């Protein structure tokens, strides 16, 4: 009885706990559009290709080998190889090495750095793009009978295949700050969420091409999007890049084995591009949103009090926090004691402001690759349910996937109790 009373009390004081505010938003089909600004510039594709081996996405047996190679490269940067030397410049200044130091709330250890000269080459015509080598993964990406019979096992296999997933403490560091209830408004974080991210991360081809997409959208609700030919090329280039990874090849084999799509890989790539990037309407405004905009970039609702919806990607969070547009305010207390997040956690439930607009509760998988998130949400949409209780590595997760007609209205992970 005492436990019941505590539960009812918490439900009254904290009605949104454990539920992302996208739940109701997706069902209501409210209208908004999206945007993010990524510092752009030019960097030769050859430089990026040389920094990353062509086989950077391999089955599980090669993952540790490739992560060790990344760490070895970082060791050349000095100070034990764990991170580049800390900057001494103040916020808003530009360093001589082509990086801009920006931010509103100072991190506890060093300022964020965002590459200024990185992604403009991806605006070139498709036939002028250079991609990672296409690797033959053999049977490493063939779904087993067990996996075909259980989507949870398939999702966990995707976790194993994500060779581009980052390692906490080696590739990045976060400071979770203090915990809070959803309804609490005070800022419980003294510093930014990200205290450090390896510069090498922006040279991973799938990460770099993903970043190039983030400045293509307007955040305001009801703004009709205009997609330029250059932006379409960026979309196609990103799909082509991720299609060379193990997680996307596994996704194709899984969906084709289930009869959802044809076995033709080119058809599959066209389906992925259309599925994630085609514009649709929310709340009566046609062409104002897309699955990619909502899930990965974020949107600002304008009905009544402004709210942030979507925005579940950690790379977007890092970049916006780096430019002072995101103010991290602390993590949301987990339902179960002993599950408090720390610097090693990949799954976070947090609260933040974006451009001064509150996101009272949001969840994200930190350090996973863009291709991994594309794969799990696509798989859940086609073969899963609205709620998918699974395990991703060590994390019990409920992957929520809401429909908006024949599109993804929203998709995000929630820590399972």
From TrEMBL:
Report the InterPro entries cross-referenced here.
ENDOU, EndoU-like, EndoU_C
Subunit note = Monomer.
Q: Which family does it belong to?
A: Belongs to the ENDOU family.
Q: Where is the composition biased (Basic residues)?
A: 106-115
Q: What is the protein name given in its UniProt record?
A: EndoU domain-containing protein
List keywords of the entry alphabetically. Endonuclease, Hydrolase, Lyase, Manganese, Metal-binding, Nuclease, RNA-binding
Question: Which cofactors does the annotated protein need, by name?
Answer: Mn(2+)
Q: Which domain of life is it from?
A: Eukaryota
Q: Does the keyword Metal-binding apply?
A: yes
């Amino acid at each position: 009885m005492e436990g019941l009373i505590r539960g009812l009390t918490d439900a009254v004081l904290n009605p949104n706990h454990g539920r992302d505010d996208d739940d109701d938003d997706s069902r209501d089909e409210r209208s908004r559009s999206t945007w993010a600004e990524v510092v752009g510039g030019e960097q030769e594709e050859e430089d990026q290709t040389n920094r990353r081996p062509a086989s950077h996405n391999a089955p599980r047996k090669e993952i540790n080998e490739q992560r060790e190679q990344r760490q070895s490269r970082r060791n050349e940067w000095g100070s034990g190889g764990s991170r580049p030397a800390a900057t001494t410049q103040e916020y808003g200044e530009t360093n001589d090495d082509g990086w801009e130091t920006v931010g509103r709330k100072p991190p506890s250890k060093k300022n964020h750095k965002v590459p200024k000269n990185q992604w403009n080459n991806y605006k070139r015509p498709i036939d002028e793009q250079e991609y990672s080598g296409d690797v033959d993964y053999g049977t490493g990406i063939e779904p087993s009978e067990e996996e075909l019979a259980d989507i949870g096992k398939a999702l966990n296999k995707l976790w194993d295949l994500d060779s581009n997933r980052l390692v906490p403490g080696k590739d990045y560091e976060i400071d979770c700050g203090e915990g809070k209830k959803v309804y609490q408004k005070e800022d419980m974080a003294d510093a930014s969420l990200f205290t450090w991210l390896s510069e090498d991360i922006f040279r991973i081809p799938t990460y770099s091409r993903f970043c190039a997409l983030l400045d293509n959208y307007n955040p305001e609700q009801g703004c009709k999007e205009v997609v330029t030919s250059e932006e379409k090329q960026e979309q196609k280039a990103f799909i082509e890049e991720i299609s060379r990874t193990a997680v996307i090849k596994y996704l194709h084999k899984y969906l084709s084995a289930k009869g959802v799509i044809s076995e033709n890989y080119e058809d599959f790539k066209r389906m992925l591009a259309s599925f994630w990037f085609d514009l649709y309407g929310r709340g009566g405004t046609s062409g104002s949103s897309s699955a990619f905009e909502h899930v990965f970039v974020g949107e600002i609702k304008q009905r009544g009090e402004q709210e942030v919806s979507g925005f579940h990607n950690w790379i977007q969070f890092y970049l916006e926090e780096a430019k002072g547009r995101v103010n991290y305010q602390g993590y949301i207390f987990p339902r179960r004691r002993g599950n408090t997040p720390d610097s090693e956690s990949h799954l976070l439930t947090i609260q933040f402001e974006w451009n001064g607009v509150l996101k009272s509760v949001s969840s994200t998988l930190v350090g996973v690759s863009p291709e991994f998130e594309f794969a799990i949400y696509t798989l859940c949409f086609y073969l899963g349910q609205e709620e998918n209780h699974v395990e991703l590595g060590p994390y019990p997760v409920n992957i929520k996937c809401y429909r908006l007609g024949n599109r993804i209205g929203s998709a995000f992970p929630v820590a399972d109790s």
